[in-house]
Amino acid sequence: MDQNHCCLPWDGTQSTFSDPLKQMIIGVKEHGYGVHLFPCIDTISKGANLTIYIIDKVIELWKERHGGVYPTIIYLQVDGGSENANK
User: Fold this and answer.
1) What are phi and psi of 69, to 5 degrees?
2) Where are the beta strands (DSSP E) in 1-87?
3) How far apart are CA 62 and CA 60, in angstroms?
4) For residues 56 and 32, is the Cβ–Cβ distance under 8 A?
5) 3-class SS at 3?
6) Partners of 28 in the beta sheet?
7) Strand-pair partners of 34
8) Contact call for residues 23 and 40 (beta carbons, < 8 A)
9) DSSP secondary-structure letter at 45?
10) Where are the alpha helices (DSSP H) in 1-87?
11) Which long-range contacts (CB under 8 A, 24 or more apart) does 15-24 make?
12) What is the reported pTM?
């Protein structure tokens, strides 16, 4: 997908827009439940801290759905981490 389609505001019929608001969407697939989507704009730093925050948020949502009990086993598969690219 062309990343320029994710810029806000979308330039529509204009030929250019000088100062778009860049965004990204981070998705988490939770087995047996569904998908969580976290939209982020470019003022949020990307990296390990954001990834850990999102993992923590999904675990807290899981805990709320299961009566205040944390899961005993967690399996993670992370894709697209820039810190580990080509290593």
Assistant:
1) -110, 130
2) 23-30, 34-41
3) 5
4) no
5) helix
6) 36
7) 30
8) yes
9) P
10) 48-65
11) none
12) 0.67
Measured between alpha carbons, how far is 79 from 4 in angstroms, rounded to an integer? 22
Residue 61 CA to residue 19 CA, distance in Å, equals: 35
CB 42 within 8 A of CB 33: no
- pLDDT tens digits for range 22-72: 888 889 998 888 999 998 888 888 888 888 999 999 999 999 999 999 989
Please state the length of the chain.
87
Is residue 8 within 8 Å of 21, Cβ to Cβ? yes
Instruction: Note whether 59 and 74 are within 8 A (CB).
Output: yes
Say if residue 9 is preceded by a cis peptide, omega within 30 of 0. yes
List the domain boundaries for the chain.
Answer: 25-84
CB of 48 closer than 8 Å to CB of 29: no
